[in-house]
Recover the amino acids of this structure.
């Protein structure tokens, strides 16, 4: 079932964390060559004729001028057609989507998708805070990630009785998953009480409700589905995807207990894949804040409207539960190097659907996994991708 | 001949210039609706299911956070799949290329491509100069556009005897063309002597060898070639395109009298289109500096190696000449609002190939036109697009 014109045949990533000893280009190269080396039958680098580069940092803080050429040179393939995508938090997943379009259009054969970001070593003088002080049109009025995501989560608490304890359970779950993922930024465990007792950043988000800032890169290799078996006996197919936008400004939005762009993107992806949410074996969703993961459950159809708090409470979304969410540890515990995040979610789906996820392997029944990002200014853009084992 | 899977059915742009009374979103909307209104048989906005947004400013100066959602909202179509491309100076033309891929992949039906930029009203405290002062890794060491492009032009002068007078002739020609273009930023005329007597910015570029900084936006509407006739009796087809990258750092480059990425991109585009350079009726090329236009002639195959100076001297590239280059006025005189530039070149090709370019109409013989950008840090990325009247 599904679109299935493009296959993923390799996937790799760097450790996520505070990687002060590696630059952006170095991280991108490391992720790319990890993906290349993961290709079961190997892939001749001469076959790679295009690349898509997901990177946000240049836009947000203005101290880099990365382009497709930055990536092409970093991976040792100057000459290839390389495009940089910058589309808010879904940057990495949109880069993947554009790569799929290039392959499906017949214009590229084997394409590398690399997302990379360095968030942890910005000098103070060019930081987001400094941008605010200098009169940034949004940031200087407090338009940061917490304040952009908080209103919908607060409204969800008001409408459906979702609690801070249920949000803290998301953190507890995702840290627990990350403890099984050697690439994750955060290892160890946090308890619900620790989350609730951590300092409040922006109501309802305590500091442990928030994902960390991260450095890291992730990569996948895609090709036309009908030649995937040259590279591996177990390709994973692109069953469907969707990208959607919301009205940009808060006063124009119509939904306040979730994000319409995610609902639209999910509908497009499910339709393209020819499946419904109950056929998913796992989902990697955009848990930049714990409460956001809960709203995502409903936007993506993983549980009924208003039931997200209950879903995490009863363990539905834990590995071994009805629909494991963020088995990788998610943004909360694996980390969130923005341009890399969506690609890393696809790396997790690839390994899970090939039953190579080790200690955090989820149970496969239908053979489909979903990846999701939502973000951009005013949380106005979302990408959903569905990968599947099935073909035809 | 050629790819011809996608057609352009509408094109429009704002005036380029110092547009202090219009914001980025307003300019994008104006260009988009100009393109929509240009569609001969009209186009129902409900059919527009995707958009590509070319915008660089956010990256270069960090004071905007534009995404696809910015464009979707600006043109009144929140909900559609909208992606922001940022790929150096070829940003607009790469956005167009991605739109073509989406249509050819069968994932989008009618797609808007909008490039827009506001370069003229940055507050001093967030300017490029200020970024340099703050320790920008490139800009603080003088890594600006003039110093990135000058070395190859100087080498061309050394190798082939290209002169400052010949470069000044490019400015004279492009100002002369722009005087016929009501949308151009610069009207009037400059003489070769005026260019040569204008202040030196960075050897060999005098200030009148440089394009201005510009505000503006441009848009085109594309759809699958086989449904183009719903919208117009005179669609213009996408015959071919190519994107290529160079080694990022100067010490890794192999060509110093031009840019290898342009040569590679051009070869890909000509091959895809199934034509050679002598079948072009016009070209819109990336004349950010006069000398760069000359080197582009050779990189694009419009004249023999080393003969570019002579080509402009004998009038080959003037309207009415052997191969008119930049009949719109080019970046030098029409203006260079970065994300809009490539799209505006496509607007010019669309109008010229439909014989609607008024006083600056070129003579059509083969029915093909070429568009070209080159840029990004270290001049490492190039896009070439070929549009044609022919189909099949």
């Amino acid at each position: 079932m599904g679109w299935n014109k493009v296959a993923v045949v390799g996937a790799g990533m760097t450790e996520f964390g505070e990687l002060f000893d590696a630059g952006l280009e170095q991280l991108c190269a490391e992720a790319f060559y990890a993906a290349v080396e993961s290709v079961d039958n190997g892939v001749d680098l001469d076959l790679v004729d295009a690349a898509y580069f997901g990177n946000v940092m240049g836009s947000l803080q203005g101290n880099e001028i990365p382009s497709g050429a930055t990536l092409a040179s970093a991976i040792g393939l100057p000459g290839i057609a390389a495009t940089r995508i910058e589309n808010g938090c879904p940057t990495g997943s949109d880069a993947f989507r554009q790569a799929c379009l290039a392959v499906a259009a017949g214009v590229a054969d084997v394409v590398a998708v690399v997302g990379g970001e360095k968030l942890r070593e910005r000098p103070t003088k060019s930081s987001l805070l400094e941008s605010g002080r200098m009169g940034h049109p949004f940031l200087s009025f407090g338009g940061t990630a917490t304040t952009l995501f908080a209103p919908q989560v607060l409204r969800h608490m008001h409408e459906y009785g979702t609690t801070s304890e249920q949000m803290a359970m998301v953190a507890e779950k995702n840290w627990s998953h990350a403890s099984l993922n050697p690439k994750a930024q955060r290892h160890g465990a946090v308890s619900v009480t620790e989350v609730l007792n951590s300092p409040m950043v922006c109501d309802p988000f305590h500091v442990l409700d928030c994902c960390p800032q991260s450095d890291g890169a992730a990569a996948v290799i895609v090709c036309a589905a009908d030649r995937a078996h040259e590279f591996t006996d177990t390709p994973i197919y692109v069953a469907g995807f969707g990208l959607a936008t919301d009205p940009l400004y808060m006063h124009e939005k119509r939904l306040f207990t979730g994000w319409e762009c995610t609902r639209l993107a999910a509908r497009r992806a499910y339709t393209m894949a020819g499946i419904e949410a109950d056929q998913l074996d796992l989902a990697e969703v955009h848990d930049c804040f714990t409460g956001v993961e809960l709203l995502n459950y409903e936007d993506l159809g993983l549980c009924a409207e208003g039931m997200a708090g209950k879903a995490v409470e009863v363990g539905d979304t834990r590995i071994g539960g009805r629909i494991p969410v963020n088995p990788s540890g998610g943004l909360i515990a694996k980390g969130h190097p923005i341009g890399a995040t969506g690609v890393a979610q696809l790396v997790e789906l690839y390994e899970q659907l090939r039953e190579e996820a080790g200690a955090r392997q989820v149970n496969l029944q239908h053979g489909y996994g979903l990846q999701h990002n939502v973000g951009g200014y005013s949380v106005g853009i979302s990408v959903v991708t569905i990968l599947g084992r099935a073909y035809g």
The longest strand of chain A covers residues 215-224. Confidence is low (pLDDT under 50) at residues 59-63 of chain A. Chain A touches chain B through 65 residues (CB under 8 Å).
